[in-house]
């Protein structure tokens, strides 16, 4: 008779979701605060929006990175399931979010059009091809307190929901059961655009430099102007 292995699971950090490998070791850690804003239509074709908050007690499932499989974390509650997929770049030194998926049963929404059934939404394909979302060194965690608004689309390419994230802490390649050193978000993606938070600083620094140079230039001009005036007076 085969002896069944007793699996001891690593403790999960406070307020985090975790995915474990078959040895009980944490391979994905995530702290996610999110509102899901979903657009749907009533039986009278009235357009409505439902806002759902990701609960702290969502059921966590997922898969660790192995062979050619990509790591994924899925959070399930009520009639919803929200998933994040991860990849490494070609040279294996950076990870990023390769996609997000939202599934829900639209028939459960207030006054919803009947028999709509299970809906599945994904991120914009074009944006994902041009942007490594939340790109972070592979041994580190991504951390961002700013709100980030990402659009999700149905199979016809129609924007049907937005995911609003904040206080986000992610690491899909965990090595010791804890978040690694954190890399703070350098820019905040909003919809299809990325707002670079370094731009205001750069502009401010440039303006400050121009101001200093202007004052310095005026001081030099004033110095020679005064000297010339005094010299002419002495003559």
TrEMBL record:
First-listed, main subcellular location of the protein, grouped into a coarse class: membrane
Signal peptide: none
Ranges where the Lysosome-associated membrane glycoprotein 2-like luminal domain occurs: 16-172
Keywords: Endosome, Glycoprotein, Membrane, Signal, Transmembrane, Transmembrane helix
GO biological process: establishment of protein localization to organelle
InterPro entries recorded: Lamp2-like_luminal, Lysosome-assoc_membr_glycop
Residues spanning the membrane: 199-221
Cellular compartments annotated: Endosome membrane
Gene3D superfamilies from the UniProt entry: 2.40.160.110
GO cellular component assignments: late endosome membrane; lysosomal membrane; plasma membrane
Name of the protein: Lysosome-associated membrane glycoprotein 5
Lineage: Eukaryota, Metazoa, Ecdysozoa, Arthropoda, Crustacea
Gene: lamp5_0
């Amino acid at each position: 008779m085969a002896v069944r292995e007793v699996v001891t699971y690593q403790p999960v950090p406070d307020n985090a979701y975790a995915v474990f490998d078959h040895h009980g070791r944490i391979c994905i850690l995530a702290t996610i605060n999110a509102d899901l804003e979903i657009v749907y239509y009533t039986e009278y074709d009235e357009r409505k929006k439902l806002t759902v908050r990701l609960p702290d007690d969502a059921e966590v499932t997922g898969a660790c990175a192995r062979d050619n499989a990509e790591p994924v974390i899925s959070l399930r509650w009520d009639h919803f399931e929200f998933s994040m997929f991860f990849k490494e770049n070609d040279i294996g030194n950076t990870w990023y979010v390769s996609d997000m998926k939202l599934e829900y049963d639209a028939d459960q929404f207030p006054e919803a059009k009947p028999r709509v059934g299970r809906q599945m939404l994904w991120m914009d394909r074009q944006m994902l091809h041009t942007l490594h979302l939340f790109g972070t060194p592979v041994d580190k965690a991504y951390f961002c307190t700013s709100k980030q608004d990402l659009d999700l689309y149905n199979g016809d390419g129609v924007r049907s929901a937005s995911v609003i994230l904040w206080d986000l802490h992610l690491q899909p390649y965990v090595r010791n059961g804890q978040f690694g050193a954190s890399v703070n978000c350098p820019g905040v993606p909003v919809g299809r655009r990325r707002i670079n938070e370094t731009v205001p600083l750069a502009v401010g620094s440039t303006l400050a430099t121009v101001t200093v140079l202007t004052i310095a230039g005026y001081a030099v001009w004033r110095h020679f102007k005064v000297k010339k005036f005094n010299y002419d007076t002495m003559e």
